[in-house]
Amino acid sequence: MTEEKNQFEGKLKEGLGKLTGDKGKEIEGQVQNAVGKVQEGLEDVKKSVDGAVKGVKDSFDKKEKDAE
Q: Which residues contact 16 (CB under 8 A, 6 or more apart)?
């Protein structure tokens, strides 16, 4: 959720900066939006790794159960 909040706030700041001619606020918004996108990507990677680990663990658990 934090990543979505950062992206939303970043876009808002960027738009406000463009509207008011405040380049600093515009750049701040772009950076915050980019941070949100990176956070979102890292969360996706984390979920993928967690899924892969669970799959490997389940595979070993099944082999142990079959060996009994």
A: 22, 25, 29
| Residue 21 backbone phi and psi in degrees, to 5 | 80, 15
Domain ranges of the chain: 2-67
Angle between helices 23-67 and 2-20 in degrees, nearest 10: 160
Instruction: Dump pLDDT digits (tens) for 9-64.
Output: 999 999 999 999 999 999 999 999 999 999 999 999 999 999 999 999 988 887 77
Q: For residue 1, which of 31, 43, 34 has the smallest C-alpha distance?
A: 43
Please give the Cα distance from 15 to 21 (Å, whole number): 10
